Amino acid sequence: MNKKIGYAIAFIAALGLPFVMYPVFLMKVLCFALFACAFNLLLGFTGLLSFGHAAFFGGAGYAAGYVLRDLGLPFELGLLLGTAAGAAIGLIMGLLAIRRQGIYFAMITLALAQMLYFVCLQAPFTGGEDGLQGVPRGRLLGMVDLSNDLVLYYVVLAICIAGFALIMRTVHSPFGQVLKAVKENEPRAISLGYDVDKYKLLAFVLSATLAGLAGATKTVVLGFETLTDVHWTMSGLVILMTLVGGMGTLVGPIVGAVIIIALENKLGELGNWLATLTSVEWFRSIGDSVTIVTGFIFIVCVLLFRRGIVGEIGALFKRPRAGAH
């Protein structure tokens, strides 16, 4: 019941936020929140650490951009084909990597993702180092003009809520319970008769599909796609979001995405505000040190909040109940 009230409050707040904050920034946060939730489905609930999720995010973004700009297809087909591209890349990578475990699985996903990065660097339709520029937003169902930031925000919000709902449904389904069993004790899951490799592959493809949806949506929002989204640093960024927010929790990756994206975009403004408030000019330079600040936050979380922000808060509320028994 409490969770439902919390979700309702968050939904109402999300409806009103574009009236007090820049809608494009909010849409970017939503896309990365969906990306982090998709990654958490694989790491937090299945126990598979992928270092190649940038391939799904960026690959889908390039596919959606090409479909919308060069082929001139509608908005819906752009998102659909972009997401399908993410799923296809996920299926290929999953078939090659899923039989490996631990560091070998992580390294294979990293290597395959870097192969895609070099393909995107060399392929003529991606624009190379200049990226794919001028991607049109188009119209929803051929009628609603998405060039308006406010209209597009509510479309992106609906997409992200649908993606989050799918993840919630998956986690609480019998399929999700098998994934948790695989994460907790894979040999026991095998002894119970489950085809573990098949379940892990399905989870991998589902995670890649949702990451692709996030990447395709981000390309539409910003109107361009660059090599940054397929670089290995993007895979590291989504891991950071998940760990900071809380791996294995439903809303933790959302909190982590909000913190990291807000730092990337607003740290300079915060530094200027602090410099004006305190007359210490040094604060104006912290906007150039985003990676240092995020790295510091990561170290603090690893040392003090190993379950992430949401995980630690959840554990704090559970302690009195556990003590009562």
Defining key terms:
2 strands; about 75% helix; two-stranded antiparallel ribbon; about 0% strand
Overview of the structural elements:
α10 packs across α11. The protein is built from 13 helices and two strands. The protein has a two-stranded antiparallel sheet with strand order 1-2. 74% of the residues lie in helices and 1% in strands. The mean pLDDT is 85. The chain is globular. A hairpin with a 3-residue loop joins β1 and β2. The chain has 325 residues and is mostly helical. The protein has helices spanning 2-16, 23-46, 53-69, 75-97, 102-122, 149-171, 174-184, 186-191, 196-222, 232-245, 252-278, 290-304, 308-324, and strands spanning 139-140, 144-145.
| Estimated helix fraction | over 70%
Rounded to an integer, what's the Rg over CA atoms? 20 Å
Mean pLDDT: 85
Unreliable segments (pLDDT under 50, ≥5 consecutive)?
A: none
Name the beta content range.
Answer: under 5%
How many DSSP helices?
13
What's the short version?
With 325 residues, the chain is an all-alpha fold. The chain has helices at residues 2-16, 23-46, 53-69, 75-97, 102-122, 149-171, 174-184, 186-191, 196-222, 232-245, 252-278, 290-304, 308-324, and strands spanning 139-140, 144-145.
List the helices and strands and how they pair.
Blueprint: H1 2-16, H2 23-46, H3 53-69, H4 75-97, H5 102-122, E1 139-140, E2 144-145, H6 149-171, H7 174-184, H8 186-191, H9 196-222, H10 232-245, H11 252-278, H12 290-304, H13 308-324
Antiparallel strand pairs: 1-2
